[in-house]
Amino acid sequence: MDVVTEVYRFYRGYGGEKGDFGFSEEGLPLVYMKAGAGRPVLLAQYAMHAREYVTAYVALKQIALLENKPPEGTVYVLPLVNPDGVKKCIAGAPLWKANARGVDLNVNFDARWGTGVQNKRFPGPSDYIGEAPFSAAESAALRDFTLRVAPDMTLSYHTKGEVIYWYFYQDGARLPRDRSLAETAARETGYALAEAYGSAGGYKDWCVEKLKIPALTLETGAEELSHPVGREHAEEIARQNDGVFAALLNALRRKTEKI
User: Could you tell me the pTM of the whole model?
Assistant: First the structure.
C-alpha cells in the first residue's frame, strides 16, 4: 500500500474530529485530524515536499497516540499537504519536491516571496515560487485553514538533517519567545537549532512574519540518509518526536502574555 492510500485509509478510520481543508491541484482531498480541545492550539503539517513523504507516516503515528491520549489543548495534524507531488514521487520521480504543477509549496507563501537565493521562476522538481504567493491550490488551502483555526503555534515536518529552523526576522519580545519554544523542541527531539539564511516564502516564514506566531520547521531524519527517506525510518523519527506536542503545549500555556 502506498503512502497516499494509507493516509486516506487511516483518515477514514480515525474516530476523532476530522475533515478536509481543500483540494490539491489534481482534486485530491487535503485532510486534517484533530485531537484535544481548547487552548493552546498547535497545528502540525507534513509532506509538503513530495520526496519527504516519510513524514506522513510519522503524522499517522503521532495522531494515533493523540487519539488514545488526548492532549491538554488542541492539536491539528495535516498529514499530507502535497498528495499529488507524493504520487508523482513514488511513481518514478524520487527527488520531486513540488506539487503537480511544478510549484514548490514551501516557497509559495507571502513572506518575502521571491527573494530566496535558490528561488526559480519556472516550474520544475523544486524551488519554483509560482506565479504569485498562494498561487498553488495547496498553499492557498493551508493558508485559509490556518487562518480559520488560529493556532498559537505551527510545526512543519520535513526531511532531513535533524535540525530545527525557527527564525524569520522576528524582533522585540517575539525573538526570545520563539527561540525559547524552539529550544523546548530541541530538548525533546535531540535536534540542533539552525537558521536558514537566504530562504523565504515558506509556511513557517509566513506564520512568523504575517501571523506573528511562533513556527518551527523540523528537519527529521539523519543527514546521511538519502531522499526519499524510507518508511523504515518513520518509527525512529516518531520516537524522537514523541514528547514534542505535549512539551510545546505546556510551554505555550506558560506564555500567556500576548506579544
Answer: 0.97
pLDDT tens profile 165-195: 999 999 999 999 999 999 999 999 999 999 8
Specify the 3-state DSSP secondary structure of 91. Answer: coil
Q: What top-level class would CATH report for the domain 3-158+165-254?
A: alpha beta
Helix, strand, or coil (residue 191)? coil
> For residue 45, what is the enclosing H or E element?
strand 41-46
Q: 68 is written with which cell numbers? A: 488514545
Nearest-angstrom CA–CA distance, 82 and 138: 7
Are 207 and 154 in contact, with CB atoms under 8 Å apart? yes
Cell numbers 526519499 correspond to 228
Longest dimension (CA), the chain: 49
**Residue 64: other Cβ atoms inside 10 A:** 15
Average pLDDT over residues 50-67: 98
Strands 29-36 and 18-23, bridge-based pairing: antiparallel
Structure letter (DSSP) for residue 36: E
